[in-house]
Specification:
Layout lengths: L1 H10 L7 H20 L4 E6 L4 E2 L2 E11 L5 E9 L5 E3 L7 E5 L4 E10 L3 E12 L8 E14 L7 H8 L17 E8 L11 H7 L3 E7 L4 E6 L9 H20 L3 E7 L2 E4 L9 H10 L8 H9 L5 E8 L4 H12 L3 E7 L16 E4 L15
Parallel strand pairs: 2-9, 12-13, 12-15, 15-16, 16-17
Antiparallel strand pairs: 1-3, 3-7, 4-6, 4-8, 5-7, 8-9, 10-11, 13-14
Helix pairs in contact: 1-2, 5-6, 7-8
């Protein structure tokens, strides 16, 4: 309507025929729009290197573009569409461009995504676009490719006083699963044979079934195991920052313990109990962080049932790291119950202000009170995972 009104206005002027300008612009836009419908030939898009990353980092993907037509494509860019909140494209303003893509040619372009918050996100798909030749209208080809992107919690270097607390939890030695069991062992699972494995512990039935040498994996039954307990009952609606700090603390502590060779036996997050059973200490890092990536706030935690879940059928558990939002009667009884069973418990309370009960008369290595932003924790640098 605007174009029509302007053309009519210009057509009544004999001195300055403005309708020439509007008509030329209209024809140009029409040609550009029609060309955009057929300019970009059919292409096939495929993602590569979609791997878990930590919150606050940039994930660099590779997108393979295959021109499956017989025409040449020019100035092709690729992007993700319908990105979920918490994920944004770094190169949305100035994306990488493939200037020429010949028939049946295959190229790869980098695509960077900034992962701002932990979680498990669903990616919808990709699209290729080209504004060739006029640069006015874009021709687009969509490719639906559902995929999950796992963003781990931000694991940061713990302050020295917290690091000493976590490492003092396990003081009776460290051990990890092996195919050379000692006198007191526990069978965990089977895996493929590796050089140096004991030949007496070959799993012949699995070897015959799979056609690949398989060995039985054991864990020293006397090895001390560590459990991680995360309180998921957010005390007040505006405590989201406190919850993210708690998740970051327990993730960082778990990574530290695993990297030092201690066995992370299980994770308790609210009412859920997850058994990790890693084949080696470092193998528990990935499953632990993936579980913490998807954990969310819940209702009030039942500390009594949590203690029972740690004590039942787990006589070799010797240390517990607990991250809570309050030092209440229930959490104090939880710690006391575990200590009476001979367990060493370190409690970290993340809270803004005083707790329900006064701080316990425990050594500094067994109790800490941190603000919702983590205090000095926020000044740390991410772990190299």
């Amino acid at each position: 309507m605007i174009w029509f009104a302007a053309a009519v206005q210009g057509s009544v002027s004999l001195d300055l025929p403005l309708y020439h300008i509007w008509s030329f612009a209209s024809v140009t836009l029409g040609v550009a729009w029609l060309w955009a419908l057929v300019a970009l030939p059919k292409v096939k898009l495929t993602r590569y290197h979609l791997k878990p990353v930590s919150a606050g980092t940039i994930l660099t993907l590779e997108v393979e573009i295959e021109n499956v037509s017989r025409r040449t494509a020019y100035n092709v860019t690729v992007m993700e569409f319908d990105l979920p909140p918490g994920i944004e494209c770094v190169d949305s303003i100035d994306p990488p461009i493939q200037s020429r893509l010949g028939p049946r040619e295959v190229v790869r372009l980098p695509l960077r995504l900034r992962c701002m918050r932990r979680g498990i996100y669903r990616l919808s798909g990709l699209y290729a676009a080209s504004a060739f030749p006029l640069g006015v209208c874009r021709s687009m080809r969509f490719s639906l490719q559902d995929a999950d992107l796992v963003v781990y919690p931000a694991c940061r270097l713990l302050p020295e006083y917290l690091t000493m607390s976590t490492t003092s939890l396990a003081t009776h030695g460290k051990a990890w699963p092996t195919s050379w069991p000692s006198e007191s062992t526990e069978f965990i699972h089977t895996r493929e044979y590796r050089a140096g494995d004991h030949p007496r512990h070959m799993h012949w039935a699995s070897w015959a079934r799979l056609g690949t040498p398989i060995v039985k994996v054991y864990q020293d039954a006397d090895a001390e195991r560590v459990a991680l307990v995360l309180d998921t009952s957010v005390p007040y609606p505006a405590a989201d920052n406190a919850f993210e700090t708690a998740v970051s603390i327990i993730a960082s502590a778990g990574v530290d313990l695993a990297q030092q060779g201690y066995a992370i036996d299980r994770l308790v997050a609210g009412e859920h109990v997850y058994r990790l059973c890693p084949t080696r200490p470092e193998a528990s890092i990935g499953p632990l962080l993936e579980l913490l990536a998807g954990v969310g706030p819940s209702g009030q935690i039942d500390w009594t049932s949590t203690a029972l879940s740690l004590l039942t059928n787990n006589s070799r558990l010797r240390a517990v790291l607990c991250v809570a939002f309050d030092w209440s009667s229930a959490s104090a009884n939880f710690v006391e119950h575990l200590q009476q069973r001979g367990m060493r418990v370190c409690t970290i309370v993340v809270r803004d202000g005083p707790t329900s009960r006064p701080a316990p008369a425990l050594p500094l290595s067994l109790y800490h009170h941190l603000p919702p932003d983590g205090g000095r924790l926020a000044a740390g640098t991410p772990h190299a995972l």
